[in-house]
Amino acid sequence: MVLHGDVAKSFDLGTATDLLSRTPSVLLWLLATQPDELAKSGTEDDWAPFDTVGHLIHGEITDWIPRAKIILGHGENRTFEPFDRFAQFDASKGKSIDELLKEFHRVRHESLDELRSMELNDEKLSLTGMHPEFGEVTLAELIASWVAHDMTHIRQIVTYLAKKFGSHVGPWRDYLSILD
Description:
This protein is mainly alpha-helical.
């Protein structure tokens, strides 16, 4: 059994913060100035890049930093609010992908400023909070999940974009696992 303190000691906050700071630029590079039909043609079961960026914005506002503050301020005495994984469908209506990318850049920058202001150390990273589904989680686990969440959605966007070209790749399909 790994103790929470041991997890925090092996967690690399600097690398996590660095990766989190890069996500807006990666998405801007992938999606800025793309035609709306490429970015906005998803469904609730198959999110388009537009939906995914909206989801990331919603997470910045309602999930990662608010939950970190709950851990630091209340520990296990206050359960996290459940996260609405589909709130972006209403929140993003009427916006363009470029507007969402700018908004994501802004809210991520604010989140990282807030994270840095917490002056986290191994002791703070070992503190626990109460997730409504998973139960006890550490601050280090929350931040690591934030990074993995970003990477999951970058992969989702790249896969979505690649599949838009899948019917045109001809015999190379067998070599392009991203199309499976």
